[in-house]
Design goal:
Blueprint lengths: L48 E9 L7 H10 L10 E3 L10 E6 L14 E10 L3 E5 L6 E12 L2 E12 L2 H8 L2 H20 L7 E8 L14 H20 L1
Length: about 250
């Protein structure tokens, strides 16, 4: 018998990986800035560290936290705001799986033909019956950990998104300092939660709170700008737009 048995939730955690692999991701979208990238976390970001929490009460809905998470995992892309796409793993949201993200700009703006402004991705690092967590790769807007959960509170199920994040590089940090990045991030997750609530026939009002965890900038991570997904997407955007337009002609 082993002297160091694996913890009970060992199967809920992703195994460590050196670089991300897209072999298990469904087809579609701009598959940029993901394959071969390393994962990052808040420690490896450039900007100020924030903890942001968004939630919605599913008042009147009979769904348990487990049922909410089951639906959230199965239908995850359908709850995102218009103009944003999530190309998930073929096996569903499970530990170790990778997804491709095609994100719209502020206000849900995309290039002509619904071409995304930023192509990036995530990896599922944890999943159980009441929660799941994503971590971002190099080049993503945010270096962080985002956890989706559901729990019972005062007779109702609450769905929650909690993010521990830093901007990835100085350019992204500038957009957050100007308010654009914060507003886009906050609107995105509150809209997602409203859409999730509507799935359970609840006209929920999403709420949020944010806390500045670390006000410092990590200048040693300024080099992350080399992997900036927005810049790298912009380089290939004209070709993608042309291909889409020709495909429609």
């Amino acid at each position: 018998m082993s002297d160091n048995p694996a913890p009970r939730d060992a199967g809920n955690w992703a195994r460590p990986v050196d670089k991300l692999d897209l072999s298990g991701v469904q087809a579609g979208g701009m598959r940029l800035n993901v394959a071969g990238r390393h994962l990052t976390g808040p420690i490896r970001g450039f900007g100020q560290m924030w903890q942001k929490t968004y939630w919605v009460r599913l008042s009147g809905a009979p769904a348990t936290p487990q049922e909410v998470i089951t639906v959230w995992k199965a239908e995850f892309p359908s709850f995102w705001p218009k103009g944003n796409r999530f190309y998930g793993p073929l096996t569903g949201i499970r530990p170790g799986e990778v997804a491709v993200l095609n994100l719209a700009g502020p206000g849900g703006v995309t290039a002509p033909g619904e071409t995304p402004v930023i192509a990036t991705g995530i990896m599922v690092i944890y999943a159980d019956d009441v929660s799941f967590s994503f971590m971002t790769p190099e080049g993503h807007i945010l270096a962080g950990l985002i956890t989706f959960s559901a729990f019972a509170e005062d007779g109702a199920t609450v769905a929650q998104v909690q993010a521990l994040i830093r901007t990835m590089d100085p350019l992204y940090e500038l957009s957050f300092r100007l308010g654009v990045g914060h507003r886009t991030e906050d609107d995105f997750w509150q809209a997602t939660l409203r859409n999730l609530a509507a799935r359970f026939n609840v006209a929920g009002q999403a709420q949020m709170r944010s806390a500045l965890v670390d006000p410092r900038l990590q200048w040693s991570e300024a080099k992350n700008v080399w992997h900036n997904a927005a810049i790298r997407t912009a380089f290939v955007l004209p070709g993608e737009i042309l291909k889409r337009l020709l495909g429609r002609s």
